[in-house]
Amino acid sequence: MISFIIPAKNEEKFINNCIGNIIKAIDRWGKSSEIILVDNGSTDKTAEIALTMGAKVIKVKDGTIAHLRNVGAENASGKYLAFIDADCLIPIEWVEYCISTIDNPKVAGVGTRAIPDYRNSTWVERSVASLMADAERPDYVKWLGTSNLLIKKNIFISFGGFDENLITGEDVHLCKKINKNFLFFLEKRIFTIHLRESKTLYDLFKREFWRGSHSIIVFKKSNYDMSELPSIILPFVNYLLLLLSILFIFTFNSSYIIYFIFYLLIPVVLIFKKRKKLEFSAFFQYYIVAFIYLTSRSCAQIFEIKRLIKHS
Questions:
Q1: How much is the pTM?
Q2: Could you give the domains of the chain?
């Protein structure tokens, strides 16, 4: 049995289609499953819609997304846990494909890339997807996001579930702990649609600021995994170069121009890091997205450092 776990708060706009796609995937697979919606104090019809569609609803007053997912896991009856975000649509083949791979005893979890709905997407969504979701990744990866993740329940429990002290990055933290003993497989034949990708540059800034708000803590909790070091260093270097560039702009001191040039080149480094094959016709759009991404991550890191110093 698979237990689908959906953390949600005020998701009535998306929950009907989310659960509907899960039901279609279950029907195609043809075996028993359950759907558990963990409601974090919704004031709309999220819980009512889920109930009418046959989901079990568990209400939680307040908690991190990690806590909501853990509550769902604690109440799950399945051998497998499928974590699905409420604004995501899994394809009809999702269960069939993922379950065929997870039967491997060395594999702990399986998931797919999450991409925007290209039929109704903006250039920002398409550029972010091209840089991030479509970036080349191996079949076996160190971590998978919980927008859609099928994981063996016994392994999930044995590694303690998600760290509820983390506001974000809890999926990276857990997967990297598990990855020391087991594998994670990225299923590339299908995609999951993420309906709430960043449609504007402002949306992108807010989302990446939130995602980067606990990057240092996640790095520390991962026992300083060196593979995560670039995500710490690049935003920090970007911030330092920004400060030195400001000196150039306001003082017109030619000795600072090299810092300004390097600051403008940092997004290019990110682009080529993510994209092995580059469509130069879209380079300017990639550059803007990479620039906003780095700026937001740099700001988040500075705020995180201030917070850590304050509570030290």
A1: 0.88
A2: 2-197 (3.90.550.10), 226-310 (no CATH)
